[in-house]
């Protein structure tokens, strides 16, 4: 005990000094080692005692235990950790030194002394004991202990020396468990760092079957760990080998910018010996990804890596070149550097990017260029690319002095170099033709060397033509020579298609006007289609084409575009050859039209191209020729509005059944035309809306990733440009963005990720549009998330909601100071609160919505009506919608407290007597309580009256039956169980699932659309008696919510009057005669409690004589606030009006499935939307005089005899004439494939009109 106390003080003093500075660690290690040796010597007399350092180890561990419990952060803790690791290293080094010096039978004064036969030295016992003690801390509950113990092991693991097998296996398993299973990312990162140091000590042959090696574990962590710091730790410690290199390269696309930067700066640049250790594809991927990264730090790291590669290549021996220069070997080094990439193939653009990046980091690289004559005579693909990059960079930097010092050839000399390269290409084409003729099977591929030579000559000529565009054509002789060579190349039938665009770029540069360019191309097309023309005539016109006095009409008089022999008169061989020529001509015409910006009417030559070449190609059935023809027609439409108007229907009719590639091209054409001409393409606004609806429906059912991407890009452009403002388009794009079926469509996701940020932050109006579709989109996302399959992934509904909350944040919008931008989140809060009033929502959905309320940013001042709505909804939500989960109730309480505190002054200034409006009456009807009579309490302005306990008249017979449902809002009564079964049966009988509660939200926050006159006095007497009538007259003039319970039985209007009396009784008959717009106040007061109550009335409370259809049409207490019956009824009134216009005395149509829109159960987010109810006649004259809207509308209101009018705030969704037209296609097309919302099971709407005849589309339809 005394020895332990003697060691305690000096050891503690050493640890005290070690935590002050890193500089004294070496000195303290020596001092601690002396104490260690002395403690071992005192007990060394006991030769059988292998633990003669027990006292020292106990004190040492006592010091360590004081450190591992400290929270991460203090620098003193890190210094002590480093000191412990350094002492372990010092002990092992001393043990190795003593072992080397130790002689048999010669005692030594060290802790490694002992018997030569002793397996465990004192140093190994010390290390094993410390390690075993630290491993126990890996599973501690305290995260600080776990972190510090793993951190300490990571620091000392490289200096452990030799340890026994059991300790090694225990350490390995513990580190693998910490690196993969610990919930703290910092602990996993330290475990990965420690585990990587054990890779060299692992023997793969000793692993059991199915057991992962340490390297496999680290690669999995590097690729899949959610924490960026853990992935970075694995990236920095994984060895760079041929096995690990592919996984390392995937981190260049990591979502974390720091990780992407480390790949270039800390892994590849210092640890890659030579770029040739990578494959060509890997080098191109690295350079393309790094130099194209959106983060400047990543681009800088990639450019430094490229510069390091150039230094390595420059140090290699260079092959002897056929030309020499005074550049000090820089040009030869750059050519060798370009050989790292495939400049003949798709790597040409990447090679140029790397070259320009190198010029940016080393500005003196291009200053030493000198092009000799031998350089141009011995061009290679790499040297041609180098010359072109030098020319473009010098022109971009406006370095004319650099061009002069480089001795570039003049235009005439350059024309001869182009001619020489063209001759070499013709020779390669002849060799290829000979090889093809010698082959028994002409369809076989050419020999590899011939194909490679042909590709090289094509690249060299293409680079020279790209340089020719940048030359100065003041020299007329050089201009004529370049024109002659370029025209000859275009007229050659075997010219590679990749050179057509290059030649046309040169012609456009040297021709004086677009008319001359069009005329030259038309002449070349004629030569290709009729090659039997005399050479002399061609040469004559060739000389005249450079003059501007030859008119296009002169050319058309001499020759025609039509063939002398029709297609029916050709043999199959001649027809195949004619098709190849037509494809060649169409390619040439398309390239020419892409470079023409003038009007179609100003170039009459194009009429012949359109009539004789493009339109016949459109009528062909071959997909290749038809695609070329449609693209050419679309380009003509861009410069001719009359052709565009006439051809738009043709393009739309081709979309639905076209192959993927053709559909991609047609959609590009349609979107280009819509952006170019906007509303000029159609005469009516309804037609434009029909086209947008068709495109949105196509996106919903499309399954091709390429077509999905082009649809999203086109619709996003229309929205950003303000050419489309329909919220349905935003909803479709939003669902496509999060759909699990587009998870692998990177182009679509990247486009929409950029679009939503720019669209929402650019305007408060755009944020408002996104807000209007949030709840319906949220229900759809929730349904998709519930129906996910095992192999599908998508974001959670909460993440989706947070995205929308962020996009609608007024602080990030460009118009942050406007009143419109401040109300977005307040309106969103109203929408969420209205959705929370739906008692049938699952607790999971309610939890998400309550969480979103806490993320909303409310700032004042708010508009008074909006603030009043928010206050009323918050005041009654906890009483009318008592939540089963106390957590949700607390969340609502916190939000309510925040709003009350923030707007306390505004709340005190509210004159509640001013808000006794029909709109507020509707809001209270939705909540399920009576609106207080603020007019009689005007002196209490600013204070909100208490909610009446029961607004139902006690004298009403039906009111007595419904009263318990009004008062109960939660889960007490047993009757709802029976009614739930009935609801389930009704749901099974419905044709389609009920809609989501979204329409309810709209009804609750919008002003009323119609204000009906009060019910006749006779009806009130019949239904309620005299006492009821007096009680109702004492109420406010606006109708109470009870009325909506009586609207459902009126849906089945095809029943005889006797049957109606039998089913509904006398009161129902009188209410059927009354009909809206004169609803009875008494039934309206009866609906609200049943709608807002969580406890449904028992089925026994229903009339005994009710039929199945009446049960379906009867209101459900837990339905969507009785708004659905009003919506269905008014749609029926509209249908009745349409029918009455054509047949006056027609029998009303019965709608047995009208109960579907009344439900608001969980099934309301089903994939199949409810079908619209069939039209039926309305016997009320007032209803026939109005034009009711379609879709969800607000209920009619009682305004004491005033005429029913539509308020300005009502939102109507009127059906357009285009919708009516497109619902009657000429022929039913085949069902479209499943698309971005595959789980919706919706039948896509076929809205693309099918042409009835060729005349309707100008004769462009398929023959």
Tell me, briefly, the overall form.
flat
* Helical content (DSSP H or I, runs of 4+): 55-70%
In terms of structural class, how would the helical and strand content be classed? mainly alpha
Uncertain spans = 44-51, 105-119, 533-542, 544-558, 940-1263
Please summarize the sheet with the most strands: none
Overall strand count: 0
Determine the mean pLDDT: 74
**Proportion of beta-strand residues:** under 5%
Radius of gyration, taken over Cα atoms and rounded to an integer in Å: 41 Å
Oligomerization status of the protein chains: single chain
Enumerate how many helices there are, as a single number: 55
Head-to-tail CA distance between termini? 108 Å
Descriptive labels:
single chain; 1263 residues; mainly alpha; 55 helices; 59% helix; cell cycle; DNA condensation; chromosome; Cnd3_C
Descriptive notes:
The structure is a single chain. This protein has 1263 residues and is mostly helical. 59% of the residues lie in helices and 0% in strands. The protein contains 55 helices and no strands. Helix 1 (2-18) crosses helix 3 (54-68), helix 18 runs parallel beside helix 21 and helix 34 (727-738) packs parallel to helix 37. The chain is flat and about 115 Å long. The termini are far apart. Residues 44-51, 105-119, 533-542, 544-558 and 940-1263 have low confidence and may be disordered.
What layout of secondary structure does this protein have?
Layout: H1 2-18, H2 25-42, H3 54-68, H4 75-101, H5 122-136, H6 143-156, H7 165-181, H8 185-196, H9 214-224, H10 228-237, H11 245-250, H12 257-271, H13 280-291, H14 296-315, H15 330-338, H16 348-361, H17 373-377, H18 381-396, H19 400-405, H20 411-438, H21 448-469, H22 476-491, H23 500-510, H24 514-529, H25 535-544, H26 552-558, H27 572-593, H28 605-618, H29 623-638, H30 641-655, H31 660-677, H32 685-701, H33 705-720, H34 727-738, H35 746-762, H36 764-772, H37 774-786, H38 797-807, H39 819-822, H40 824-836, H41 843-855, H42 864-880, H43 886-902, H44 904-908, H45 918-927, H46 957-967, H47 975-989, H48 998-1005, H49 1017-1033, H50 1057-1074, H51 1081-1092, H52 1108-1113, H53 1123-1142, H54 1181-1185, H55 1217-1222
Helix pairs in contact: 1-2, 1-3, 2-4, 4-6, 5-7, 6-8, 7-8, 8-10, 9-10, 10-12, 12-14, 13-14, 13-16, 14-15, 14-16, 16-18, 18-21, 20-21, 20-22, 21-23, 22-23, 24-27, 27-28, 27-29, 28-29, 29-30, 29-31, 30-31, 31-33, 32-33, 32-34, 33-34, 33-35, 34-35, 34-37, 35-36, 36-40, 37-38, 38-41, 40-41, ...
